[in-house]
Amino acid sequence: MSKTFEIAVFHGDGIGPEIMAPTLDLLRGLSSGYDFRFTDCPAGAASYLDCGSDLPEASLDTARRADAILLSALGDPAVRYPDGTEMTPQIDIRIALDLYAGVRPVRIVPGMRSPLNLPDGKVVDFVLIRESTEGLFHTQGKGHVEADMAEETLRLTRRTTTKVCDFAFRLARERKASGSQGRVTSVDKANVFRAFAFWRDIFDGVGANYPDLTADHAYVDAMALWFVLRPWDWDVMVTENMFGDILSDLGAGLMGGLGMAPSADIGDDHAVFQPCHGSAPDIAGRGIANPFAMILSAGMMLDWLGRRHDMPAMIADAARVQAAVDACLAAGETTGDLGGPLDTRGAGAAVMARL
Ligand code: ATP
Ligand code: MG
């Protein structure tokens, strides 16, 4: 009997709907032993102009009830709140659904426009876990500003720090089963901030529950250097919100830009899968956007759902989607941003053909 998964779909703004369309086609085409029911969730700039809300309650409700959430890109720098600030519904979703673990895989495969020249035999394949609900983002727009002084605070809670570290160790264990090092590196600044000594203590405590894995630490400034000089060294990293924000863009840079970077934001009960890039209003409406980051994010959704519901066929399909994108990259079957001749639909069709 086939299992049907409810998926909340945020088509979004700009190139969002363009990259979502081939992604949904691809998911509809897979479905061996499972099916999807996709429900559209208006949100973002178009929704704000349409109904006065960039995250309507009904969309958030649908997301809350869904088995998983697919999100392309929300927002448009030209559409702002009356006070001039940009809308960030994707961050509101993260907070509302307590999606504490931001998962940012960094893989360099042939055909990507990586600025790195990797030595022969070196493979870059690591995952950065960014705590996504507190840390240096916890004051979010409510920082304290006086005429001659401004102040923001860093908040780390034992509850969330424990959860996100545990998430990182579980992921490292899964990855070890398919040949990775089985190593988790905490990225912090414990030499300067007491709050990070607190983080480190919790990380070490959680790591003690995983004697089969290696746990170590690095300072964030050193890690920025090592991302560039020794990116093949790492397996799973876990870090605070702002450090993770910065390092994940650096990771996307190693892959040649945001067009190739997928992501997931995962909590205990919900998960959002979305590309790292924004709505790219500069190229919207032309059908030329690169759909690979969106498709790879959908692949991460298959992996997450498959593990959660114990469906090996789905986990295998996740690996097939990634392999199909890799094959397209290697063959130059890509959109113009990667130097290829295809448009968005063509690139989506190329991935399906490889599947
Ligand atoms: P946000 O604030 O929403 O994160 P951003 O300012 O970081 O947005 P993006 O919308 O990610 O900007 O776009 C940055 C640049 O990358 C733009 O020139 C855009 O055209 C390009 N870009 C982003 N995503 C894609 C994609 N999928 N395919 C091709 N080009 C893209
Ligand atoms: Mg951005």
UniProtKB/TrEMBL annotation:
Keywords: Amino-acid biosynthesis, Branched-chain amino acid biosynthesis, Leucine biosynthesis, Magnesium, Manganese, Metal-binding, NAD, Oxidoreductase. Residues 6-351 form the Isopropylmalate dehydrogenase-like domain. InterPro entries: ICDH/IPMDH, IsoCit/isopropylmalate_DH_CS, IsoPropMal-DH-like_dom. SMART domains: Iso_dh. One of its GO terms (biological process) is L-leucine biosynthetic process. Belongs to the isocitrate and isopropylmalate dehydrogenases family. LeuB type 1 subfamily. This is 3-isopropylmalate dehydrogenase. The lineage of its organism: Bacteria, Pseudomonadati, Pseudomonadota, Alphaproteobacteria, Rhodobacterales.
